[in-house]
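Problem 12. The chain below contains 453 residues. Write out its predicted structure in token notation.
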Amino acid sequence: MHKLTKQLTGSLLVFSLLSSAAACAQEIQQLSLKQCIDYALIHQTAVKSARLDEAITDAQNREITGSALPQISGSGSFTDNLVIQKQLIDVSIFDPTGRTPKGTLAPFEFGLQYNLLGFVTISQTLFDGAVLVALQAKKTVEELARKNVQETQRDTRVNVSKAYYNVLVTREELNQLSDNIHTLSESLHETQEMYNNGVAEQLDIDRINVQLTNLETQQISLRNSLELGYELLKFQMGMPMGTSLALTDTLTFDDVRADLADTTGFSYGQRIEYSILQSEKMENLYNLKRYKMAYLPTLNANGVIGANRATEQFDYFNPHQFWYGYGYVGLSLNVPIFSSGERKSRVEEAMLNVDKMEVAMDELKQSIDLEQQQAGSNLRNDLQAIASQQKNMALAKEVYTTTQKKFEQGVGSNLEVITAENDLETARTNYFNALYDAMIAKIDYQKAYGKIQ
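Solution.
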């Protein structure tokens, strides 16, 4: 019995721990738009990749800096001459008496069986045009990598904002539809009572049932759209799909009109895309300079210090044996004379790349001008549309309320109520669509003028 109690206690403990873990796993994260953007700037894969590219660029720049500093390396070799090579020598030259006939050849071994060599090499680039230009271009390359990160962050902010507002509008539309279904259900109940009292007809009940079914079908579709909207938002944020997410912000007409920054004094450099092209052009100019510097000589200093010892016996651990040291310092100069036009072709190619980048910058200017015109026009139109739809929705709601009261008082028809309900639902749908379009137009407008960084 005591053993059974212990087993039950252990099982309850495990169940409690699992329940707590499940509750934590299902905890809903309530986030504002700013919090969603902050989350995306840390976890979104595109942002991570851009930051890694920036880190790679930093490492490459350090590599270039290292190539301009002194280089020190150590080397060593050990040789066991199993069979020492022999050479034939005329031994008559070693006979001072002249008795040995000239042309008498004898084999001689040059070298010993064991040979151990160790040395340290030191080198320093004194002048190399390519290295010099690479050092000058470091700052430009770093700026380009940083701007690429900024562009990715800008796109992430835009994508997360659009996905966030899509969920807000869909959620609000779904709430309004749920209210309509509740109101229509009450109307169905009242009509049923009126039918029971002989005031209404079965046709009135059928019409409401048809309308109620249509709204319920629309509700299912909106729920699916809302679920998909949440998944899209989590994708744009880099958030796991299984995370439960709730949005804390709201979206109104005032939100669309707020924070419309002044666009006077705009310069193309405010657009990160144009700023990136400026850095790329500067990078191409450094490439052109690097290829021109290839016509100049390169000068390097080097030095070697080492020691070696050859012996017939492997006694290198004997501290009394003598090692023979050596060393030297020197300069090496490389003067380019003729490259069969290779260097000239590289310079021409680099100049063409600079010209091509200028054309790309002009094209981007035109594209930005067009984008700003379209964004401004869309925003103005959408602001007018949302104002009209807001008034239209209020009017449709007033008509529905009046029609509902007339029907309850017996001076109106059920068909008029259903028609007014349909008009109100259409007005609400148009309003929310206009609200979302206006918010997207505002984001595109701010992006076009470089207000989103």
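Discussion. The first strand starts at residue 29 and ends at 31. Students who got a different answer should revisit the alignment rule from Section 12.3.
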